[in-house]
Structures are given as C-alpha cells and as structure tokens.
Amino acid sequence: MGQVVVISTGGTIASRWQGSGFAAEARGGDVLATAAVPEGVTVRVVDLMSVNSARLTTAHQLTLLRTVHEVLADPTVDGIVVTHGTDTLEESAFLLDLHHDDPRPVVFTGAQRPLEAPDGDGPRNLHDALLTAATVRGMGVLVVFDGQVHAARGTVKVQTLAADAFADPSGSRVADVSADGVVVHRRPERPAALPLPTADGTLPRVDAVMHHCDGDPLLFNAAVAAGAQGIVLVATGAGNATPEICEAVEAAVARGVLVALTTRVSTGPVAEIYTHGGAVDLVAAGAVLTGTLRAGQSRIAVLSAALSTTDPAGRDRALRHVLGSAPDAEASETTAAAEAPSVAA
Asked: Where would I find the beta strands (DSSP E) of the chain?
C-alpha cells in the first residue's frame, strides 16, 4: 500500500503505571509494537513528544502542525498517523484540518486504556488508523476510534472511558473499518485551507467562558483584562446569555477581541432565535456563530484566525471563512429560525 509515518505525541495509548496513576511514557516504537501492521504498509516512527494531552499548549500543537507539513514534503509518504491523548485530540485534529491542503490523510488515533492493559483498545485503533492512512485520499484530517472514521470538524470526545470515545453529535461518521477494509460513506465538506501560521511573536491568548444561571460578565471581562485576543462564549440553548453579557461582548469586540458563540448543549447549531440577551443580540454585538462546533473546536477556530493576522478585520474574515463552510450550518440556522415559535428557551 505504501509508507505511513506515525507521529507519537503521548496520551493513554503510550501510558504506563507511575505508582499513583498513569502517564504518557512509552516511545512511539513501543506503541507500534503492540499493533498489527496492515499488509503492504511500511511504517516510520517520529517521536515528537510524550505528554498527557490535557497538558498540551498551543506551542505543542503548532510544533505538531509544522512536523506534519515537513513529513508531507516527502512525496514517498502516503499518509500520517498521529497517536494522541484523547482529552484534547479533537482540538489538535481540528487545528491540523484547518491548515491541511494535501490529499494525503492525517489520521488521529489513541486509546481509552493504557499501553499494557490486557484488554487495551490501542492496538486495534492503531491498526485501523494505519490502514486508513494508507488507503483514503482527499478527506482531510480524520479521527479513527473503535472501528469508526470521523471527520476532524465537529468530532468530539463523547465518552470518558468507553472504547467508542469519539463522534460528531450533529453529524455522521465518514467511514468504517471492517475486515473488508475502509468503507467510505461520505466525504467531509471543508473550507479552503488556511496558510501555516508564522513562527514569530507571542502566541495569542484565547479563552472560553461558559454561561449558566446567575452568570454575569465577570469571567468574560477578566479574560479581556488578561489580554485575550479571542473568547469563546459557551452559551445556553441555541446560543443565549443575558443583556449584561451582550454589553460585555460589544465592548470586547470594539477593542478588537474576536468573540465566537457556541453552546453547552451537545447537539445542534447555535441560531439567532431569541432576544433579551439571546443570540440575536449577541450577534448584533459582534459575536460570530460557530454552527455546530463546540467549545474546544470553536476555540481552535478563533485561535487559527488570530494566528492568521494582527488586523482585527482580517481576523474576523478568517474566522468567518473557517466557520462558513461548516457542514449544513447555514441551513440548520435557517431551519431553527423558522421553527422558533416551537422552540423552548
């Protein structure tokens, strides 16, 4: 089939017992040794880092992004597999997808059980990821877990411990891995790739703030005061907060802060339905709807826009570009607005 490069970053798939808990320790070759390599596939391992993914920083993720592009500069490489911790896999995968313009796939996988667990899921996941990386084309960055193949966009961790850890709550998987190989069901819709961020300058701070009963602008304003160049407002329902938070959003946008609006609800789009602090007012204040993207990936969208330029208007355009091609986002918002009388706040 061809050559696949495995980039090892740590996570549960590379974790061993440390006396009081598990932590990423094993090298990529140790992880690869647990898996059956598909026939006809040759593998080269790059040991990039070994961390539990909850500890990842933007600097780590940009190092991974640049490493992927360096590996793909070799025309003999047919695909890449990234072994990654599950806690923030959805964020790293989406970041890479936003900057991926090569038909060869980048496939993320990992495990819910540690490296040496007798019932470990890592070996199967790695085998399936290798097979996917060696065979599919033109599908962007993918997530392979428990025999399922998901597009990076919209895919989040939906199980804390179970093997079927990932899904797109508002969409369907793109393929399955079976005894017959990779069976593709659909091809993801993706916007044109953003250019690689430059390596210069201080990385932008991007925060997420969740609304709840009794929620006020205190934490939102604290993020602005801390120097946030972007904020994701994780609202209730279809994207609702309060008039006071709308005022805070308007003030932040006037200062050049990017504000994206998502929801703490697991499924469905944010939509302009309600006023009195709802999405109607938040959008009027300058917030940008994120479609069906949830908090982690909305933050990555804002981060990529902030990395693209220092010009506030240019950042806003970049963010809308990234979000505007979210599958079915506009149609879903139109449908939701049409159904407004039957929607409960």
From this structure: 2-10, 15-17, 22-24, 41-51, 77-83, 106-109, 141-145, 148-151, 156-157, 166-167, 175-178, 181-184, 206-210, 230-235, 258-263, 288-289
Of the candidates 12, 242, 290, 292, the residue annotated as catalytic is 12
At residue 275, the 3 state secondary structure works out as: coil
- What CA–CA distances, in Å, run from 245 to 208, 226, 241, 265, 341? 14, 17, 7, 19, 24
**Token reading at 13:** 């798939």
Domain assignment of residue 112, given as a range: 2-184
CA–CA distance, 211 with 15 (Å, rounded to integer): 35
Please report which helix (H) or strand (E) contains residue 71, including its range.
helix 58-72
Asked, for residue 200, whether it belongs to a domain, the answer is no
Tell me the per-residue pLDDT of 231-283, one tens digit each, with 9 for 90 and over: 999 999 999 999 999 999 999 999 999 999 999 999 999 999 999 999 999 99
- What pTM, to 2 d.p., does this model score? 0.92
Domain boundary among 184, 217, 242: 184
Same-domain pairing of 61 and 95 = yes
Burial 115-137 (b: 16+ CB within 10 A, else e): beeeebbbbbbbbbbbbbbbbbe
Contact between residue 282 and residue 243 where contact means Cβ atoms under 8 Å apart? no
Which two three-digit tokens encode residue 22? 């598990």
Tokens of 189: 């819709």
73 contacts 107 by C-beta, under 8 angstroms? no
Q: Is 12 a catalytic residue?
A: yes
